[in-house]
Sequence to fold (801 residues):
Amino acid sequence: MWAGSDVRRRWRSLIALGLLAGVTAGLALAATHAAQRSASALDRLRAHEQGPDVIVFPSQVGNFAPDWDAVADLPEVEAVLPWALMFGRITEGPEASEVPVPIVFTAVDERFMGAGNPPVVRDGRMWDPEADDEIVLTPDAAEALGVGVGDRIPMELATFEALDLLDAGTPPEQLPDGRPVELEVVGIVTMARDHLFVGDGMGVAPPGFYQRWAAEVAGFQNGDLVVSDGGEGRRQLQADLDEVLAPGTPLLDLDEAARRAETTTGVEQGAFYVFAAVLFGIGMVLVGQAVVRSAVVVGDDGATLRAIGFTRRDVCMVALRSYVPTFTVAAMTTVAAAAVTSAWLPVGTAAELDPDRGIVLDPALTLVFVGTLVVLLAATVVLASWRASDARATGRSRLRPRVVDRWSRRAPLPVALGTSMAFPQRGDRRQDTLGPALVGAAVGVLGVVGVLTIEHGLEDALDHPERAGVAFDATAVPKGDLFTPSGVDATYLDAVREADGVAEVAVMDRLPVDVERVGVPTFTLRADEGHLQPAFDLVVSEGRRPSGPDEVALGPATMSDLGVGVGDTVAVGPDETPMLVVGAALFPHDVHSGFDEGALLDESGWDSAVGGTPLGSDTGAYRAVVVRFDEGVDAEEGIERLYDTVGEQSTFIEPASTPPELTNLQGVAVLPVLLGGFLALLAVGAIAHALTTSVQRRRVDYAVLRSLGMTRRGTRAVLHSEGTIIAAVGLLVGIPLGVVVGRTAWSEVATSVPLEVVRPLAVVLTVLVIPVGLLVVNLLAWWPGHRLQRLHPAEELRSEQ
Fold:
C-alpha cells in the first residue's frame, strides 16, 4: 500500500500529466482552427460586407461625372455603389504634407458602405450618413496618422484649379489655398478593399461630407459594382463600360485581386498547420514518454499482482483506471487552452481581415482533438503497463553505439561517467528519461536553427524588394512636352541621371496588351541614346529576359492563367504576333495588377507588336523614367534630390510601390518564432527533467562514487558532463536538420508568394547556437548539481540495505 504522501504525490503527477497533455493538445487545436480561419478570413469579411465584385475607375479616363444610372441599367450589373476620391493634404501630424495627394475616400450617397455593405467596426461606431465632419479609418491609416477614436484630423482640400496648376509644374507653395476642414475619427473599421485595392490604409467619409464639398473641391468619382455570376458577365462588362462611360475604362476584378491577400493568408494557413502538427506530434511524443515512465510504476508491480491471480489484461485495466483523472484533466485543459488561445489567433494579414475576432472554437474539430488525445493517452498507458508487467522483460541488447564506449574509455573519469549516464544500457530502467532528453535537445536545436534560417530569408526579402519584382527605387513622369515618339527628351534624362544619388536610369513603357486574347499589362524598358540595352531590367526569376522581336517573358500568375510555360508560344498584340516564352518575370505592382502578372518585351518586340500606340489615358499607354539610387540612399532622400533637380519639369515623382504580398510577410514572421520558442522550451523541459531525475534515480550510484573517494566537485562534474553530452548530440543532429528544414520551408513560402528564391543561411546566428546551447544545459544542471552536493553517502547506502 502507498503511504499518504505517496498517494498525494501520485495524484499530483497524474494531474500534472493531464495539464501538460491538455495544454499541448489545446495549443495544437487552436493552431488548427487558426489555419482554417486564416484560409476563410477574406471570404468571411467580403460576405459580411456583402461587397462588390468589381471596382470601376471612370475618372482615370477623364470621365469625372459618370452616368451611374446607365451603368446600373446594364444587364450584368446588379448594384452600383458610387464613391469619390478627394485630393488635399494633412496639415498637422506625422502625415502632414505640402503637396495635395489622394487624401480621403467619401461615399457619394448612402449606397456605398451603407446598411447593405457595412464594414466591420473594430472600435467606436460607423459615421452618420448626414454628417459632414466625420470619418472612419482603417487600422493602418489610424496608426500612420497617430490618431484614434475621438481625435480630429485637420486637412486642406484641393480644388481642380490647384491640381491643374500642380500638373503644370507650379511649386506647392504657389498653389492657391485649399478648403480647410476638420474631420472627427468616429470609428476604426476593417474593409476588404483596404487589402485588395489600397493596401496601406484608408479613411472614408460619409455622403454628407461629399455633398458639402463636391461643388468646391476636386473629387474624382469611381464606383463599386456587384455583377452577375459567371465569366461571360464579367467579359461583357468591360465592353459595356467602354460604351456607357468611356473607352478604356479601367476596372479591378476583386475576385482576381483577392490573390493579393490570399497569397499571404495561404502562407499563414500553411504555417499554422505545420505549427499544429509539430505541437501535437512532438508534444505527444514527449508527453507520451512521461506517461510511459509513470505507467511503468504500475507495471513494476505486475509480478506481485499476477502472483495473486491478476492477468496481464487485469494489470492493464488497473493502470488504465488509475489514469482517469489524467484523461479528465487533459480533456478539460484542451478545451480551455484552445478557447483562451483562440482570442489571439489568427495573426498577420488574416487577423486584420477576420471579422469574427475573439474566442471562437469549432465544436466538431474540438471533439476530434479531445477524442484523439484521450485515445492516444489510453493506448500509451495500456501498452506501457502491458510491456512492464511481462516478467520475462529483463536484460536487453545494448543500446548505445560503440563510439560511446570508445569515448568513455579514453575520456577523463567524470566525462566518461557522464557519457555512460547519457547513454545507459537498454536494460537500465533509468534510460526512460534520457531518450526524451536526447530527442528534445535535437528537436529544440532544429526549431531554433530552422527559425533563424526562415527569419534570415524573410529579412533578405524585405531588405531586397527586387525579390518581389521591385527593380527600381522611384518613378519620375515628365511633363507632356518632354515625351518623344520613342522615349523621353534627352535633356530631361541627363538631368535625372546627374541628380545627386542617382545610380541608373531607364525609360519604361506600360500598355495593356492582349496575350492569347487576354488583356495583360505589358512592359518594356528602353535604352536611351548611345546605349544598346537599358541600364537595368525588370526581375526575371526563371529563364532569361527576351532579346528579340519574337520573344516574351510572362509573370508566373499570367502563365498559370493562360496555361503556358517557358518554351511555349503565345499570340501577342492586336495582330496576334507569335512569340516564344523565354522566362518568368516579375513586374511593378499597382492597384490594377499584381507583381506576378504581366508581360515583358524587348524594345524591338514592343515596336513590332504594339508600337505606335499614343500615350494617354484613352489608350492606357504610360511612359515614365525609372530610377535606381546609389547604395545607402533611401527612396525618400533620393526623391527629394530629384525634386530639387527636375521637379519643375515633372508631373510627379514617387517611390516604387512594394507589393503587399511582400510586406504582409512581416505578419507571418511571428509564427516560426512561436514554433521555435515552443520547441526550445520543450527541449529545456526534457533536459531539465532528465538531469533532475538522474540525480534522484542515481543517488546510490553517486553515493558509491563519493564513498570511493570522488569529491563533491567531481560528482557535480559528472552531472554537467551528462548534460553537455545530451546538448552535444542535440547540436550535432539539430543544426544540419534545422538548416535543411528552414531552407526548405522558406523556399516553399517564397515560391507560393511568389518571390525570387534565395536560399537563406544565417551562418553567424547558427554558429552562436552552439555555445548558447551548451551554456543553457550547464545552467540547467546547476540546481540538481547543487542538490547532489548535499547528498550524504552513508544514509543513501544504508537505505539500500
